């Protein structure tokens, strides 16, 4: 993977240099899922040309940990795919810490089912699939608590809580913990599942139309805000700082609204307002 990333970047630099004596600065952005579409649009946008910047988008396979590792090892300049809670969890288990340099959007998780049309139909002993990643699972459990299906402990950690923190489960729901990439596929085997919007979109699901329950987002759920991330040493890099402005340009926001049918809600606030560090 490292070799392919750097070969791609090197080609971009050579081409930029050939076309302009004052070669544009090139930033490599690693992304996943539907976010790749957004950053590929940004890379070809008028806004990026006006910023005198070249963006090389690297579509990452596998889970988000691999994307963060590539960023921590500086195989790429930044990544754009994760929310703050996910980053907190990664940082706890990594020697190299990542930091957000700009907020981008938030998107509600949804509860989906091939069996039910409303959350009120969930029954005694039903099975529900959730992810094994602690940051994802914690958020999923909060969604289920918001839906009135379970109660979590008073000291529940929204960044790394698990099913072990469930104090009340009146319907005796059976929790099936699987790789989050398999959640949508699991709908054929379980009664319902809690799925993040990016993965839902990849499976052809729209949270505003197909979910039987939608996560409520407010000031108490800042961990759900997605960000552009890089290594701490580059947090003040002026070139990287341009990326946030590019994402929030009118041209890009129009694309996001149309492409994702309103499921990605823009968040443009100072990082200091939502990030408390490690």
UniProtKB/TrEMBL annotation:
* Similarity comment: Belongs to the NlpA lipoprotein family.
* Subcellular location field: Membrane
- Annotated membrane topology: Lipid-anchor
Instruction: Spell out the GO cellular component terms annotated for this protein, sorted alphabetically and separated by semicolons.
Output: membrane
Q: Source taxonomy lineage? A: Bacteria, Bacillati, Bacillota, Bacilli, Lactobacillales
- Give UniProt keywords alphabetically: Lipoprotein, Membrane, Palmitate, Signal
Source species of the chain: Aerococcus agrisoli
Q: Where is the signal peptide?
A: 1-23
| Pfam families referenced in this protein's UniProt entry, alphabetically | Lipoprotein_9
Q: What is this protein called?
A: Metal ABC transporter substrate-binding protein
């Amino acid at each position: 993977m490292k070799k392919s990333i750097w070969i791609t970047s090197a080609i971009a630099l050579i081409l930029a240099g050939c076309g302009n004596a004052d070669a544009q600065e090139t930033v490599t952005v690693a992304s996943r899922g539907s976010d790749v579409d957004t950053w590929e649009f940004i890379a070809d946008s008028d806004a990026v040309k006006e910023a005198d910047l070249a963006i090389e988008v690297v579509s990452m396979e596998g889970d988000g940990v691999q994307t963060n590792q590539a960023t921590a090892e500086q195989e790429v300049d930044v990544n754009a795919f994760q929310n703050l809670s996910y980053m907190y969890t990664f940082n706890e288990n990594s020697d190299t810490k990542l930091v957000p340099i700009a907020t981008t959007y938030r998107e509600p998780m949804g509860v989906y089912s091939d069996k039910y049309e409303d959350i009120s139909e969930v029954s005694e002993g039903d099975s529900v699939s959730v992810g094994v990643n602690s940051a994802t699972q914690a958020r999923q459990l909060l969604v289920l608590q918001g839906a009135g299906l379970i109660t979590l402990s008073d000291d529940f950690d929204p960044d790394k809580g698990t099913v072990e923190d469930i104090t009340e489960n009146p319907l005796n729901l059976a929790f099936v913990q699987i790789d989050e990439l398999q959640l949508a596929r699991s709908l054929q085997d379980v009664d319902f599942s809690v799925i993040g919007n990016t993965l839902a979109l990849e499976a052809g699901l729209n949270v505003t139309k197909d979910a039987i329950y939608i996560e409520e987002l407010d000031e108490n759920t800042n961990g759900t805000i997605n960000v552009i991330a890089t290594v701490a040493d580059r947090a003040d890099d002026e070139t990287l700082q341009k990326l946030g402005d590019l994402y929030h340009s009118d041209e890009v926001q129009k694309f996001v609204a149309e492409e994702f049918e309103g499921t990605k809600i823009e968040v443009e606030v100072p990082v200091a307002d939502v990030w408390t560090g490690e």
